[in-house]
Amino acid sequence: MSARPAAVLSSGVRHPARGVVARLTDYAVLTKARLTLLVLASTATGFILGSAGPLDTLMMLHATLGTALVAGAAAILNQVLERDVDALMVRTAGRPLPARRVSLDEALYVGVATAVVGTLYLLMAVNVISAALAALTLVLYLAVYTPLKRVTELCLPVGAVPGALPPLIGYAAAHGGLTYEALLPAMIVFFWQFPHFLAISWMYRDDYARGGFAMLAVHDPDGRATARQVLSRTPALVIVSLLPAAVGLAGAWYAASSLLLGVGFIALAAGFGVWRDVPAARRLFIYSIIYLSVLFVMLIVDRAGG
Prior knowledge:
The structure is a single chain. It is built from 14 helices and no strands. By secondary structure, it is mainly α. It folds into two domains: 14-178, Tetracycline Repressor, domain 2; 179-306. The chain starts with 15 loop residues before the first helix and ends with a helix.
């Protein structure tokens, strides 16, 4: 018989409020709430870029809510599929499923139900294209990327595809369809994922090895191959980030901001190439989050000002 410490006071009396907080915390972990926030930011950016006239805030709310449900479902079902691997890794052993704070049946039910509700919500409240893109994201992430992580290091470029689809969901929600402009924020997110996840894989390469993942960093003891990937993909990201200005979707202010942010990113990528250690990888990882967040804010502000 076990008791949940978060729900019990020192006197031994159960405290319902603390039990609720612990439960909500578990579901924040299951849905990968921080990662989902980045997904929503890219969805909202796509929506704003796809808006030809006044911003339809209600439709944007529908699009981001539906996408949030699908993204959260994908995170839950990913942890259902990888619960055995998560139990082997220090970084993930404390997650709700391997720690048995949430049952497998409950997580599976909630994940499937949320995926269905999210997709249907987008279908009914937004449009067919956004719903189809969300469903495609779910399938690629769970049925292709997740199993590939144990097979080949090519899982990263494959996984970058579903990761780049949320801006398209937002753009289609606002515009009613897709144009070449919709590809620009998606391309930024696609290339951004390489330095971001390469940094993560280097920081936790021992954990990934214990879990049996076929990450590049696992088979790269001196970090040279990982560094080459970072140093080649980061400049590509910077070039892609300038495309909105090159095609007239954004102005000179965004171009200058993007270039400045990119120089910082390349500098940290070069630092990782020199040091190839965990602190350098962590700096690169943290900056990658700041970079994408600020870049999208700059793009939105520049677009609104234009």
